[in-house]
Design goal:
Blueprint: E1 6-9, E2 14-19, H1 24-48, H2 54-79, E3 82-87, E4 91-97, E5 102-108, E6 116-117, H3 138-148, E7 154-158, E8 161-165, H4 171-185, H5 194-207
């Protein structure tokens, strides 16, 4: 179950913990990949015992160790991925961390373009979607692959670069997130045109 977005108020900044909001189906794919890689490494390990020659044992052992390390690294990096934001009157800092690395990027309000909500962007439907021949769920698989490579639901331009963040943050979290950020940013945070419809839709749903 996904944890709620958490807000921590400081004297001069707001810390927003987005956590890891990876779709459960995507996490299942990570588990499957981990099991497959470990299985391959284990099979290679048993086969290595039948090899003759010290150099063959060395080569096989190095390959097996590398495969185990790769499986553990990819699995832990994805499952223990964490994302957070630090907001101040000067700008916003995006922080991504795993057990093996941490990346922090700061952006000033003056140089930021409009903030956009991307959500799940439009995808061309598979030709078999909704038909009686889509026995294998091709359209569902394509959408799952799209989610697997999704970089984030919020974005803005910073110079010539598009910055995307907030994986798994959907419209029902977006309103609170934007209101909290605006407490520090004020009018420095410029929203894209799509926010007007989003805010109207969310307010209508709350009043329903």
């Amino acid at each position: 179950m996904k944890q709620p977005v958490r807000y921590y108020w400081g004297t001069d900044h707001l810390r927003i913990l987005l956590g890891n909001r990876t779709d459960p189906r995507i996490k299942m794919l990570y588990y499957i990949e981990f099991v497959v890689l470990i299985g391959m490494a284990t099979i290679m390990l048993f086969r290595a015992f039948s090899l003759e020659g010290d150099w063959l044992h060395l080569v096989a052992g190095s390959g097996i160790l590398l495969l185990y390390a790769l499986a553990g690294y990819r699995f832990l990096s994805r499952m223990l991925f964490r994302e957070e934001l630090s907001v101040s009157s000067a700008g916003i800092t995006h922080i991504v961390s795993t057990p093996f690395s941490s990346r922090r990027r700061s952006f000033s309000w003056e140089k930021m373009g409009s903030l956009h909500y991307r959500g799940h962007e439009e995808k061309t439907d598979h030709p078999l979607k909704g038909g009686c021949f889509d026995y294998f769920g091709f359209d569902t698989q394509e959408r799952l692959i799209q989610n697997l490579h999704h970089d984030g639901n919020l974005s803005f331009r910073y110079g010539d670069e598009e910055i995307r963040f907030a994986r798994g943050i959907y419209s029902w979290h977006a309103e609170d997130l934007i209101r909290m950020i605006r407490l520090y940013a004020g009018n420095a945070l410029v929203l894209g045109d799509e926010w007007k419809d989003l805010m109207r839709e969310m307010n209508w749903q709350k009043g329903d």
